[in-house]
Design goal:
Elements: H1 2-26, H2 31-40, H3 44-69, H4 78-94, H5 99-111, H6 115-143, H7 145-154, H8 156-167, H9 169-184, H10 186-189, H11 193-213, H12 218-240, H13 251-264, H14 275-285, H15 291-323, H16 325-339
Helix pairs in contact: 3-4, 3-12, 4-5, 4-15, 5-6, 6-11, 6-13, 12-13, 13-14, 14-15
Length: 340
């Protein structure tokens, strides 16, 4: 009961944070103009194409996860793996970072695979995704260094936070004191739940890396790793063509917007609500897109992606028991035969 209350409070807190940022962005906007643009000036065929490409990325992620699971001695059905992935995305909408746990739980239940081993593969998968995002960020920094510098200069609060983080004497003092305390109390520290949790995380990483190292079809793993992020990027870039004010922007502008907006997903807000919109409209401002237009773009792009995840996620939750009903019945019949 206590854990349930804590989770509800976490959800409400994260949602309030995202809603507050969202409100700050849209509070001074002309709502009638936004409605007019959404009704008359958006080519929704491009939005539909964007969602199709997004679906391809989810299918590719499913196939890649299947490749990572094979080395631990299992080959789950594609349909269960796909539905588990979509349930995970849906859970992230409500509780940030809970999607990984949820999809492992779903697949563990219906495919009888160790949850711990599955979670190890997901940890490794997320590490691969992080590396991919950092590579894209590096490309953007090199290709668009001037515009990135302009972005930081136009947001003094970001500049101040970065400078403060690296020059603060409090940070240095804290790190030194923490290091001393860990050294002095190292034996007692090893018995703490925190230390054991770190060991568990390291163990999960090890399990995950073993799954990557032992993948038989490494070429396909690499292909899906590239394809997933390519589809993520193209999915957003297609939205550019849905509006006159972004249709002429080049692919680099789309990549810059995609990468910066992706970091908005890191914020502890359901589905990146608020922070994603802010990062997207700020990225577009680097290319001369007016603030009021960037906000509309962010609303359409984020709403369409979120809507697709919610719809498919809910469908996945509903049909999982029916798809696996015959399997459960067969297992029960087998048990009855064995016991008799």
């Amino acid at each position: 009961m206590k854990k349930t209350i804590i989770k509800i409070l976490q959800f409400l807190g994260f949602f309030a944070l995202g809603a507050f940022v969202f409100w700050l962005i849209y509070k001074d906007q002309n709502i009638d103009r936004i409605k007019t643009v959404l009704k008359n000036d958006v080519n929704y065929w491009w939005v539909a194409l964007s969602l199709f490409l997004g679906l391809l990325s989810h299918i590719s992620r499913t196939l890649r996860w299947g490749l990572m699971i094979e080395p631990i001695g299992h080959k789950p059905r594609f349909i269960n793996t796909f539905l588990a992935v979509m349930v995970g995305y849906l859970m992230n909408m409500a509780f940030p970072r809970m999607g990984e746990v949820s999809r492992c739980g779903v697949l563990s239940r219906y495919e009888k695979i160790s949850f711990t081993k599955l979670f190890g593969t997901v940890v490794a998968e997320r590490l691969v995704d992080l590396i991919s995002l950092l590579i894209l960020l590096g490309i953007i920094i090199v290709a668009q260094f001037g515009k990135m510098l302009h972005f930081v200069n136009d947001n003094p609060e970001i500049q101040e936070k970065l400078q403060g983080a690296f020059t603060s004497p409090y940070l240095l003092i804290t790190l030194v004191v923490l290091a001393i305390l860990i050294f002095v109390f190292r034996n007692a520290f090893k018995e703490t739940a925190f230390f054991k949790k770190i060991l568990e995380i390291i163990k999960n990483f090890k399990e995950g890396f073993i799954s990557i190292r032992n993948i038989k079809k490494k070429g396909w793993f690499f292909f899906h790793s590239v394809f997933i992020w390519l589809m993520y990027y193209v999915m957003l870039y297609m939205i550019f063509f849905a509006f006159e004010f972004t249709a002429d922007l080049n692919p680099i502008a789309g990549l810059t917007t995609f990468v910066l907006a992706s970091f908005g997903m890191v914020a502890p807000a359901p589905g990146g609500l608020g922070p994603w919109h802010f990062m997207a409209k700020e990225a577009l401002s680097l290319y001369g897109v007016a603030n009021e237009n960037g906000i509309i773009f962010a609303f359409v792009a984020h709403s369409s992606m979120t809507g697709m995840i919610i719809v498919i996620g809910i469908i996945s939750v509903l049909i999982l028991p029916f798809i696996n009903r015959r399997k459960v019945v067969n297992e029960e019949e087998t048990e009855q035969v064995v016991t008799s």
